[in-house]
Amino acid sequence: MTKNSQRIHFIAIGGSIMHSLAICLAKAGHHVSGSDDHFHEPSKSKLKESGLLPENEGWDASKINSDLDFVILGMHAKANNPELLKAQELGLKVLSFPEYIYEASKNKKRLVIAGSHGKTSMTAMVMHVLQDVGRDFDYMVGARINGFDEQVKLSDAPIIVIEGDEYLTSPLDPRPKFFHYKHDIVTVSGIAWDHYNVFPTIENYISQFELLADSSAKGSTLIYCQEDDLATKVIGGKERPGVTAIPYKAHDHVVKDGVTYLKLPNDEIKIEIFGYHNMQNLSGAQALLKQIGVTDEQFYKAIASFSGAGKRMEILGKNEASTIYTDFAHAPSKLLATTSAVKHQFPNRFLVACLELHTFSSLNKDFIEQYKNTFNDPDEAIIFINPEAVKQKGLEILTEEDLRTAFNRKDIILFNDSAKLNEHLMQHNWTNKNLILMSSGNFGGLNLQALKQHIL
């Protein structure tokens, strides 16, 4: 251990972002330990490679002792977690993930990117541009980004780019994570009801973003998408003394032969990403970067090589006749944005879209009506529901008729078995067809590489 190193224990170290912070702190010379009751990939392999994977799954109160400087508590843990109870009994300092990020960055300029959709992509764009122009910066992002080894970086850099999640902070703190970052600049990409399990009404959900804007200190900046009605109302429709509000809209663009070009006053620039929502994200990133001195010339040069964030319309494979995309789309607004983007980019190709309903909100009969008319663009609309996931969440499984009514589409096909879904997809003739696989899960273990090899 180095002179300034600390002993830090992670409760729920296997989380998608928690493991990245653990690795970051271990690399910085701190003594890091952790526990979790289950480990998924890629967290498991990354922790093992870093020497941080616990010998056994499960919680172990004996790991908590007075030698620890503090504990970092993940959202996955419960309030009665034996390690948490032991830490409280010993009077140890317990920090949530966002609280620690703030503590590590309170002397930096904090750039927070929030919104119901688009925040990961916009955060990735900002990181990509800053790296291209040679700026020194820290970051925290919820997905794998090309050109970056980890999802968290903490150093002596003067600024930090933070993806601001509205989900709850920890079992001890039911506030959204983004309140803790105390932004200097915050961008809100859009607001569309999500996380029904913790925000049971749309009014309750919307109010979190209004409170975020209201928390802005004097001298801070609010950037919002003026094409999003709720963001415009909540962020732009209220005067906040000493706070600058900056609206943005989708960048002018044109699609030619399946390729998107940004339209500039005297030029067009070919880019790798596409979709109207990404043109909004791109403008939001540009507006934020302008606030810290990145010129339009620098921005356009850098953004031309941006290929997207992991599982955000990520290309699994393609040939001359077909492209397969994987996407994190699961909420209604994300589903609509993704499917309409691919159909608009390739209007002459048949589009097969497969959506796994995996989250508590998406599997809930009281929320499913929010999906009305969001799945109209695909030529073939498939929904996969894993009965085991429904059982784990204590919900009643949705029927094909439930889905057809809720989505307002009478030809939706439902699969509850990944083998049957795979068989259905294998039977397609994929000439002049695209496929989108959308989920925050894994389609019950569907072998994507085997499917890719068959299609392509």
Description:
The chain has 456 residues and is an alpha/beta fold. 30% of the residues lie in helices and 22% in strands. A seven-stranded mixed beta sheet has the order 7-6-8-5-11-12-13, sandwiched between helices. The protein has a six-stranded mixed beta sheet with strand order 17-18-22-19-20-21, with helices on both faces. The chain has a four-stranded parallel beta sheet with strand order 2-1-3-4, with helices on both faces. Helix 5 crosses helix 9. The radius of gyration is 22 Å and the shape is globular. It starts with 6 loop residues before the first strand and ends with a helix. The mean pLDDT is 95.
What is the mean pLDDT?
95
Summed up, the helix count is 14
- How many angstroms does the end-to-end distance come to? 51 Å
Rg, nearest Å: 22 Å
> Which structural class matches the secondary elements?
alpha/beta
Biggest β-sheet description? 7 strands, mixed
Percentage of residues assigned to helices: 25-40%
State the total count of DSSP E strands: 22
Strand content range: 15-25%
Low-confidence stretches: none
Shape: globular
The neighbouring-strand order within the major sheet is 7-6-8-5-11-12-13
Descriptive keywords:
7-stranded mixed sheet; 22 strands; 456 residues; 14 helices
Q: Could you give a short description of this structure?
A:
The strands form 5 sheets. Strands 7-6-8-5-11-12-13 form a 7-stranded mixed sheet, with helices on both faces.
